[in-house]
Design brief:
Length: about 325
Amino acid sequence: MINGILNIYKEKGWTSHDVVARLRGIVGQKKIGHTGTLDPEAEGVLPVCLGRATKVCGTLTDKDKTYETVLLLGKTTDTQDMTGKVLTERPPDDVTEAEAVDCIRSFIGEYDQLPPMYSALKVKGRKLCELAREGKTVERRSRKVFIYDIRIIEISLPRIRMEVKCSKGTYIRTLCHDIGEKLGVGGCMEALLRNRAGSFCVKDSLRLAEVEDCVNRGNLSQLLLPLDSVFSDLRYLILKDDSVSLGYNGNPFYWKHVIRLPIGTDTIDSSSDAGTERGNGERFRVYDGARRFIGVYQYEAERGRFRPEKMFLDPDELRTGRTEKKG
């Protein structure tokens, strides 16, 4: 089985499901999953997990995202983007650039966002988009999302191009709609590019044709990212050989079980002094001496121990001696 992550560039016109289906045909493997739906008209980063890496699909979906979008003022649609039925049109002649920028920046921070009817969210077992296509509108609960920053790239009213850094679950279509509503002229999303999902960037992404070409040349392994690359922002620990069974069995362990390493940007020294510097709740990648990725552990400062959060090591890997190099 092929295990690893591909940073795919989803092209316009494809659904996320289409990408997964196409990849199954390219690599000849069924166990593949994507990490967060992109609308068909959107494009950009879509990490796809193969084999054992599907264990981190949920983790990747929960990562923060960065988008580049074009807001079109003066028009609202039932889908909140250009694919839907036009509901209202109003020339935004009275809106100045300064007013638009001030309004946009007022959305930075936490705000309650009402999910759109045209979305994959489910209500009583049915997707909202399915109900919307039947002409039905149901009550939805607003959700708290966080907008970390909005950078204005270009203004040429009625269009505003901007970069949005946001938390999981944020609908950029709805953000555009809400900005238009607050300005009193309406608005919708004209274009969307996801240029970052967690640590995966658009500049490193691959189109399906590129993946297919590598598969045909027998070079797919050169494109695959290891499972632990999802956690590259975490520092790592290596268990001592006589304590590694604690990790293999998903048990808690203490500083005395960690191999001594030089203090560095992402490594931890097992001395007591180093241990007291770690913040409560800090998460770590944990490996054995062969650099096989065991899982993610969280540090409990009061007890001076690490408790398992999510385990990833495959028992077959131990039997065969295959290794997962640290990312």
